[in-house]
Amino acid sequence: MLSKAFIPYKGYYSSPFSRWQSSMANENSIVLGSNTTKRWLASKQWDPKMFDYLILGVTIGQPKIFYGGPWSAALIGADNIPGLLVSQACSTSTVGIFQAAMGVETGFCKNAYTLFSDRCSNGPHTIWPNPMGPGGEVISENWMMEHFNYDPWGGASMIQTAENVASLNGVTREECDQVALRRYVQYTEALANDRAFQKRYMFPVEVQLSKKKTLVIESDEGITETTAEGLAKLRPVLPNGAHTFGAQTHPADGNCGLIVTTQENAKALSSDPNIEIQIVSYGYSRVEKAQMAKAPVPAAQMALDKAGLKVSDISVIKTHNPFAANDIYMAKVMNLDVNNFNNYGSSLVFGHPQAPTAGRSIIEAIEECVMKGGGYVLFTGCAAGDTGAAIVLKVK
Predict the structure, then answer these.
(1) Name one Pfam family in it (predicted).
(2) How far apart are CA 119 and CA 18, in angstroms?
């Protein structure tokens, strides 16, 4: 259990998420995330040099990623500090926030900035020399499509892992469709009153189209309207499977940032000093081969155990749910109502840019918990390699 690491209220932002091959498709995500952070800090009138450490989360190769950590620190205006590059697929935000919290807990740093930015669009195609191959033929790898379609250890695609869990635990097509529709309805609640909920944390992205023309992206791009009738017409992605394209997420582009600091600094930076956000605990897991959709449950249970809490103590639950089966399995095992968590949005609907995916959900959970008057927040989600990561926060 942690006791010294805090997040200032409003000491975070998330960009809108953009469905891949849309408006952010040609942007280097490290540059875009850093530039968005610099503008966000300026809007708060905060000096970037107040940070003593930076953690950058990126999972998809970008030009100059070799210099990613210190480069992003310099780009935001903190060229006096080092930066660490963290990459753990969809758990990158959760792990990065925990690493920053550990830095504060141990006195390694006092005011860390965590930046998570990815671009699923136009993912790199990597080649390696292979002089012994026939005719010197190179070895190649497509970062996005090949990694989604095959786990070298588990031996299956991402969608197959979800179908494995669905099959083994009696999750039906009808249940997946019902959850997909419920998650869409929850997302639309964040759009009510001119996107009042999203405007609590969302910060626009600026894409430079030319020397004189800038595109400002203020809201999510590429969200597909979901209806019961539309879901019923879709075919399963895999033969006889429980998931259609309507019951799984889509790749996206985006970024988010959070400050992790001491209690004293958090109070000074908070937009409301009466609201305190403490990082309480972290949990992780690795489940059986090719059963990734199970992983959020043991990760969540570890985080709860380390915090000395039960799931009934939690006020707000958010998950990274790339497939509807994730939430259905978790609800069954943890005795939850599947309709009563992931309020205001989840990755199933707003998309999956990898590194910032969990970060946005954690930010949304904080805001929902503040609206409820405080309590405990639990975020949990799966990640590549049949792994999971979870975090518990206390809002008061």
Answers:
(1) Thiolase_N
(2) 9
d(CA 330, CA 292) in angstroms, rounded, equals 12
Note if 352 is an active site residue.
yes
pLDDT in tens, 333-385: 999 999 999 999 999 999 999 999 999 999 999 999 999 999 999 999 999 99
Phi and psi torsions of 334, nearest 5°: -100, 10
Among this protein's residues, is 176 annotated catalytic? no
219: DSSP letter: S
Point out the catalytic residue in the list 147, 250, 320, 352: 352
Pick the catalytic residue: 90, 120, 176, 256?
A: 90
Which residue is catalytic, options 120, 176, 369, 382?
382
Backbone angle region of 248, left / alpha / beta, with phi > 0 → left and psi within -120 to 50 → alpha: beta
Q: List pLDDT tens digits, range 282-293.
A: 999 999 999 999
Q: Any idea what DSSP says for residue 27?
A: S
Identify the structural domains of the chain with CATH numbers, from first to last. Answer: 158-194+275-395 (3.40.47.10)
The residue count of the chain comes to 396
What is each CA distance from 27 to 121, 208, 214, in whole angstroms?
Answer: 9, 9, 13
Q: Is 369 considered catalytic here?
A: no
Query: How many CB atoms are located within 10 Å of the residue 30 CB?
Result: 26
Q: How many Å apart are CA 283 and CA 298, to the nearest integer?
A: 8
